[in-house]
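COURSE: Structural Biology Practicum
ASSIGNMENT: Worksheet 4, Part C
STUDENT ID: 0417
INSTRUCTIONS: Below are two proteins. For each, the amino acid sequence is given first, followed by its structure token string. Answer the questions at the end about the second protein only.

PROTEIN I
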Amino acid sequence: MAIEVGLRRLTLADLDRLAALEGCQPRHWSRGQLEAALLDSECRVWGAELGERLVGHAVIARLPYAAELQAMLVAPDMRRRGLAARLLEAVVEQSRQWGSERLLLEVRAGNVPAIALYRRAGFGEDGRRRGYYPPLEEAADAHREDAVLMSRRP
């Protein structure tokens, strides 16, 4: 079920809410990393808000000739409602405004829902980085996970 949220570029005033949202996942960006992204003139941090609540965010960086989706997160209780697709649309539009030739991203090979979202949005697989991500869990049988490299034209 899709819901109506507001999308806007986040600022330093949103850092507390952004850090709280990011903290809901096991491997998350630090407060310092989030602050650096908000202050970087070559980055944009887009937020999805439901009322006063920040329910999702996406970080996009401008590179020479390309843009890179560096992070995207939707609050666990708000998933499967179209928010990631809305954030991704904002990221694609930002890369267009920058005049980027490609929009790049990498995703854990085991993140099947995210890979499906990216494929629906026109991203194709460009390659893999074997054993790139550390395990999500500390279990004895946990192993490193591949990164799937994807891109599309904006």
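PROTEIN II
(use this one for the questions)
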Amino acid sequence: MRATATSLENNRVKLSVEVDEDEMSTAIDRAAKSLASQISVKGFRKGKVPKSVLIAHLGGPAALRSEAIRESVPDFYAKAVADTAIDPIADPSITVTAGEEEGTLAFEAEVEVRPELEISGYGDLRVTLPSPQVTDVEVDAQIDRFRETDATLSDVDRPIVTGDLVTMDVTVSEVGSDADPLSMSDYMYTVGSGTIIEGVDELILGLRAGEDLVLNGSPAAGHTATYQLRLKKVQERILPELTDAWVEESTEWATVTEMRDQLIEQMRSMKVTEAQFVQRDASLVALSELIAEDLVPEALVNSEVNERLHDLGHRLDNQKMSLETFLQVTNQTPDALLESLRSDARRAVRVDLALRALARVEGLQPSDEDIEEELARTAESLGVGADVLRQNLHDTGRSVAFAAEVAKMKASRWLLDNVTYVDSMGVAIDREMLRAEPLADA
């Protein structure tokens, strides 16, 4: 078999394929064997019909050849894809141009391929991550949480501030409803906790015991209610003095210094873990935004959406849950689900195109050794031999796709090592902190 590729406009390629007569003979024999197992011919068991009888039953050699062409062209196309190292992203349009009746079979296949896009600006990327630095304010706040377990309450006669405990009577009346209001007496509310309704924490500040607060809010979608709060008592928490004696008696540590040092280590480890958790995704998203949305082929997006739908269906089957139940549980409509999947798919495709572009411009294409190492790892994880996987990738036309995945891995590692990481204030983050090994207990 011989195949050549010609580039066309709009990211399309034309494959011209020729299949010699000996390969066609093999394909015809394979088709005959397949048909013999399916067709019933009087006087013969299925699978035992002689080829000559089968040909006569079908109506002549041309009919068997036609069936062989129909069955084998997809395989010939897949091998042509592998031989020409193109990267199709859609189904091909195939036209047989010669050899339908005898001789060399020739066909042409036009197909959309993955575009090779240019990328610039990646060297100046600044990716925002949660800061791995632990501040004194954060440490003090954590220590205060321990102290609050031994706090005492003291009545105050001053304007309310965040953290105060306010005893109140609460009445909630749904607007436009004849239902009786919901009432709660002596409800104890910690200012700043946000557990009543949005807006309370801002409006209650500065009020005093004996005053009332009335506001409207939405306790649930499509509902509006009036909240009447009668403020009866305001108390502040008096924390115990932070001394070595209190620390030894009330915590697992012996001294204030030991407590502070251990908390700093634990919090730093947790914050490093948090930053590491979002590091890769944040970097990939930042890189993907260098690829214009209008350059993303819809064929790739549609393929990604279909894969995600397939994966979702497989997960739901494993959980013995129907799609209708899933939509009810997640409070989604089919259109909303599809839109969400499409948005995620488009983002994933932009990441894919950006990593491929980065690999090209930085010369990160994998060597044969790189590909063989990854192929061996993948084969081991699948429980098959490396030779089996290699042959399967070639026969199905996915060798190029596999090599591209290895290139993307290298590009991803390059990206993590070269972008600038900053915290929410724009301060650069020491990359060595992000490489730190988190503590096990964090």
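ANSWER KEY EXCERPT:
Q1: The first strand starts at residue 2 and ends at 7.
Q2: The chain has a mean pLDDT of 90.
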